[in-house]
């Protein structure tokens, strides 16, 4: 038996994850560089850009600065090492894209992949709990300030409302809307960080004058 190859047979060379259904047709939506940058920045930096300086400030400006620079160097080296391992694993496997757990399994074996998967799950579960808890407190505080009252809403109301609000947006919102919303939140975080720097530099400038 001979295998017959037809030159006019369409071949799938790539699968896209960002497909949207319009008029019973799947259309590929090209990604946005700004949206992807905001997604990575919001995921890797997050609220730590505001929390870390506030937490380390009581130790002094110099010690906190040295600590933050050391943490930045650690994360930079870790990112470069992960990128090197990823490229090496892609070369060995022969696939253009790999998941984190597959990369760990090819490098450290199945036991290492299970440990890494458990640590990854625990880390993001802890982050989710922290964001929901703090977000609920901020939401309750904002509502109480708008109503002109204090300490009338229990904490569970804020966390529940925060989960339903943003969870509903993530579940029901379209991809473009979620991307723009994330970009807006990242811009707010950066503006808050710049404002925090300006606020911290103002008394010092006034003292010098």
Write up what this structure looks like.
With 209 residues, this protein is mostly helical. Among the domains are: 52 residues, no CATH class; 81 residues, no CATH class. The protein is 74% helix and 4% strand. The protein has six helices and two strands; from the N terminus they run ββαααααα. A two-stranded antiparallel ribbon has the order 1-2. α3 crosses α4 and α4 crosses α5. The radius of gyration is 23 Å and the shape is globular. The termini are far apart.
**Morphology:** globular
Low-confidence segments, ≥5 residues, pLDDT <50? 1-16
Q: Helical proportion?
A: over 70%
**Rg from C-alpha positions?**
23 Å
| Topology order in helix (H) and strand (E) letters | EEHHHHHH
Give the DSSP E fraction (strand runs of 2 or more residues).
Answer: under 5%
State the strand order across the main sheet. Answer: 1-2
Which structural class do you get from the secondary structure elements? Answer: mainly alpha
Distance, first to last CA:
92 Å
Output the number of helix runs. 6
Total DSSP E strands: 2
**Average pLDDT, all residues:** 76
Largest sheet: 2 strands, antiparallel
